[in-house]
Amino acid sequence: MRIISGKHKGYRFYPPRNLPVRPTTDYAKSGLFNILNNEFDFATVSLLDLFCGTGSISFEFSSRGCTQITAIDKSFHCVKYVREMTKTLDMEGIEVYKSDVFKFLHLCIDKFDIIFTGPPYALRNIPALPGKIFELGLLNKEGWLIVEHSKQLSLAEVEHYKLSRSYGSTIFSIFTH
C-alpha cells in the first residue's frame, strides 16, 4: 500500500498481515481522490474515517493537507498500527480511537465535512449507515458521506444518495444533504 499524493507521496507502508482488514486498493483510492480533488480543499476539511483499518484513507487525507481527522476502529491492533504510523510520518491532527463504530456515532457531538466509511463487506447493516449518520446530524451541510462497499450491494435507493463510482470490485457510494 502507498500514499498516492501530497507531502508523503509514494510512501509505501506495510501493515501487519494479522490485522482484520480489507484495505482499499490503491486503484480505488486513486479514483476516489480524483473526484474529491475537484470538490474539496483538503486543508480546510474535517474528516471522520469509520472502520479505519490500516489508516490508508486517513493517511491520504493527511498527506494532502487535512489536519482535522478522527479515525475509528474497534480493533486494538488496527488502532495501535495507525497511531504508530501517525508518529512515524509525523502526521499532526489525526486522532485515533478504539470504539465500535455504531456506539461512537451515538456519542459523537462533532460534525464533519467528509465522513468515509469502509465497513467489512460482510456487515449486514451497511445500508443503515447513511440513515444513522444523517439522523444524528454528523455531516456538515455541504459535506459528503462516502460508503465503500462491494458490487453485490446497491445503495442507490437509500435516502440522500447522490452517485456511485466503481473501481474494480470496489464501489464508492456518495451521499449528501
Structural category is alpha/beta
CATH superfamily: Vaccinia Virus protein VP39
Helix content: 25-40%
* Largest sheet features: 7 strands, mixed
Strand element count = 7
Spatial order of the strands in the main sheet?
3-2-1-4-5-7-6
Distance between the termini: 33 Å
Mean pLDDT: 95
Please state the second-level CATH architecture: 3-Layer(aba) Sandwich
What are the low-pLDDT stretches, counting only 5+ consecutive residues below 50? none
Shape from CA axes?
globular
Explain how this protein is built.
With 177 residues, the chain is an alpha/beta fold. It has a single domain, classed as Rossmann fold, CATH 3.40.50.150. It starts with 25 loop residues before the first helix and ends with a strand.
What attributes does this structure have?
177 residues; alpha/beta; Rossmann fold; seven-stranded mixed beta sheet; 5 helices
Explain the layout of strands and helices.
Blueprint (H helix, E strand, L loop, with lengths): L25 H12 L8 E5 L5 H8 L4 E6 L2 H13 L5 E5 L2 H7 L4 E6 L10 H8 L3 E12 L10 E7 L2 E6 L2
Parallel strand pairs: 1-2, 1-4, 2-3, 4-5
Antiparallel strand pairs: 5-7, 6-7
